[in-house]
Amino acid sequence: MKRKHFRMIQRVYLVLIFSFMYMPIAIMAAFSFNQSKSRTLFTGFTFKWYKSLFHNEMILRALGLSLVVAFSSAVFATVVGTMAAIGINAMGKRSRAVINNISYMPVVNPEIITGVSLMLLFVVMKDGVAFLNARFGLTLPENFFGLPTLIIAHISFNLPYVIFNVAPKLRQMDIRLYEAALDLGCNPKQAFFKVILPELMPAILSAFLICLTYSIDDFLISYFTSGTTQTLPIVIYSMTRKKVSPEINALSTVMFLSILAIILTSNYLDSRRDRRER
Asked: What does pTM read for this prediction?
């Protein structure tokens, strides 16, 4: 009887927690289909806000920029972060601990500090380029705030997530697999790409998806490093400063469903891979 009562309490607790987490998203999605602009009364079902969304050039331009920045930074950060994780794993215990602590600092560092520090770095770089142009008569581009600075900034905060996703998988691997591949005739390059990389691929894919979602979602760091260009979160912020348009509800719903689809697809592929290995 006590066990049954305890299970009922667990279910009620789970319902309350998930309701608290997802009720705002459900309300937002429901009002994205509202016929009027009211945020309290549902007057009828319509798709007009989604049609208006996909005809809004400013939002589509910002979405395109966000996707370019997200994919570029995620790919670069995944490649560099994976190589860094392999290098850190090969270090001694004390050196590895020091490097891991240094790598973890950008994760716990407040985003506003990261954004301001990157902005100051790019300003110094801009002044340095201007000095070189004036001193040596060069014609290097001075105003590079925009896409280049956005990609560099997103790579900088994505790298730690890749390292901390790939490193645990490396520690779980049996080093004898690599040694066996060498004994069976593989050179170090072949052993890495045929043995080590396939074992790391689930962690690498997970790290790539995390970088992708964090990059699309980022506002603070992008705000300080974007210059005159605007990513999607910045456009949403500028649109909500006056009044929340139903187009924002529609856009947020599309983004939520897209990220949810990516997560579910990744989990499905991981579970199917686990079943095959068993």
From this structure: 0.83
